[in-house]
Amino acid sequence: MVISALERLAHRFSPARRFYLVGHAMRQGIPSINMSNMIKEVVSMKWLKAISISLFLLLLILMPVSSAKGADSLKSGFRLPSSAPTPHHRVIAAEVQRMNRGVVFVKTQEGTLRNFSIEEAKKEGISSLQKGDRLLLEIDEGNLIIDMQKQEAAAKAARSPESGTIGHPQTIKGALDSFDPLDRKVSIRLGSGETQSFEVKVPVLTKLNGVTQGAHITLIVDEQGRVKDAHKS
Length: 233
What we know:
- Residues 157-176 are annotated as: Disordered.
- The protein is an alpha+beta fold.
- The protein has helices at residues 2-10, 15-27, 35-66, 118-123, 151-157, 202-208, and strands spanning 90-100, 103-108, 113-117, 134-139, 145-150, 170-180, 185-189, 195-200, 216-221, 226-232.
- A hairpin with a 2-residue loop joins β1 (90-100) and β2.
């Protein structure tokens, strides 16, 4: 009965404390306690504890993934925004500092230095640039330049920078018909059944990559007919 009572009492303590009780019992001349079973129990408890901790950590890692709401998973890890991203865009002023080997370097009102190619500026309708020219740059939620315009042109268009966008872009909704990231082309099927194709700007490629054919999307097309943003309809 002493042995049985001691064993029941031992179950209330930690593994280390149980070893102490076993040793104490043996010193008191009670050798009948099964030391082998006690060791196996302690070892199994340690493994159980390790497994429990591992499962808990795994759960913490997976929780953000499982709670992510309705967005198309993209191969690049990006997701197509589920609402119009324009409120997350900003328009900032910039001044040309220098030009070198086909690259334009500007300093923005935020104090940052940015650059883009002269070829890209021409595609945006800016035929020439020189040091001191002032521009407006539209920056998307990924902190990338998606549109630009000379300040005097923006003034003539009476477009306020507070609008979060440059110029007067078109909003086109429909189902994705095809997308070719190499040629930077996207085709969208309108509700009327008509299909329209557009050139895609580089910052938008990652947003469209992986979007399945037939998915309903909205394209923001600039005044030069190029897609500068995209999101879910």
